[in-house]
Amino acid sequence: MSLLAALRDAVGPANVLTEGDLSAWERDWRKRWNGQALAVVRPGSTAEVAAVMKACAAARTAVVPQGGNTGLVGGGVPDMSGTQVLLSLQRCNRVRDIDEANLTLTADAGCVLQALQDAAAARGLLFPLSLAAEGSCTLGGNLATNAGGTQVLRWGNARDLCLGLEVVTAQGEVWDGLSGLRKDNTGYDLRDLFIGSEGTLGIITAATMKLAPLPAATTTALAACGSVADCVALLKLARARLGAGLTGFEMMGAFPLELVGRHFPTLPRPLPGAAWTVLLEQSDTEGEAQARARFESLLEAALEAGCVQDAVVAESLSQSQALWQVRESIPLAQAEEGLNIKHDISVPVSAIPAFVEACDAALKARWPGVRLVNFGHLGDGNLHYNVQAPAGADGARFLSEHEHAVNQVVFDEVARYKGSFSAEHGIGSLKRDELAARKSPVALAMMRSIKAALDPLNLLNPGRVL
Ligand code: FAD
Ligand code: ZN
Fold this sequence. Notes:
Radius of gyration: 23 Å
Helix content: 25-40%
Bound molecules: flavin-adenine dinucleotide, zinc ion
């Protein structure tokens, strides 16, 4: 039997797509990678995923798993060869169980993140993972990329929230590792091997995730700081005063906020003129009034200490949402401004002020007039440190001529401060060469042995990560 016939047998002919417009699966979200699949295959259950993997293994055909296709490093779309099977998990989208006493949710990998947040909220519970792509990205993709987002400061990234996995191996076996246990020291942690493996070690088909009680209130505040060091001082103060109530701490430079003002003029601009603006989010078990009072006393202390120059506390949920909208509009505003060179880096929080100063200076010395779109999850030491062409210059041309050199300047500074050149978005195909160049040879050798052990035929997402 031919592979296509075997795939049709496995998932039904209607779920093996080979014709028509397949760009929703073959082109990535940023429209940076265009691929051509042998077929787009859409299984509806774990058993069907296993049957697809068995058929592909028998035919020695490569498989690219895909969830919501919101990944930013070119890891979830096929190459141009027309020989890879695109395995979409979107039809595996059932919430299997919510265990209120155990505070866990078990769901299929293709569930959209927002649907899981809603399912938990309907039971008065919080599904703590949250990111701007939540309307499209899937649980499986979140785990395969170990996604972060805006709540990592309090809840950790996808890895920290995951208790168990169900995985289909490269050979088409099903590993049922779905467990709601918070304590289980029985040998190597296979779960953690698959989290962050970007589809190169196995197909995640379901997961058991931690939940938390829904907070009674969530409020935000904005603070104007004179320097990055002041933002870090404010973080220390906020942690000391709000403890686990501090659930978000986002830093935004003046230039990204100027871009938001230019391209989204109807959005609020509450602290104009600030060199750095911090968005703080607090979640409270008591209520809104208490949360606001705690914010006010924190910000008074920060004004007194001199790390904050001005501040506002949101007065309503809709004001809070408007402030978040400003933060979340930065990626769109910079896209309106033209192409730029994107970075997703992390360094220890304590090193952020020195890193920003040194890296800004190194870039401006080599490319005078270059503009820095610097914003991100300061509480996690993670910055989206993007480099925009000088005003008036052609962004696309700047990108094509200088991207590699700009990356080397930024990544060398990151290395100097013992940071990571990919904090959130992973490696995919975009950063594969960087990984080979910058990861220790010992680490690379161990990664290659794991890959060879689990996927000896190199069928799962070949050419990605390693
Ligand atoms: P896809 O894009 O479909 O796939 C991503 C990778 O995972 C690919 O390598 C794919 O092969 C693999 N994969 C997907 N599903 C499976 C599976 N079931 N089993 C095995 N491998 C699989 N990321 C962050 O970390 N933090 C952010 O704040 C953030 N914000 C974003 C905002 C926007 C607007 C966008 C577009 C993206 C953002 N991202 C962010 C990146 C992206 O959304 C996340 O990486 C997300 O977790 C990817 O999920 P997905 O379902 O879309 O995966
Ligand atoms: Zn981010």
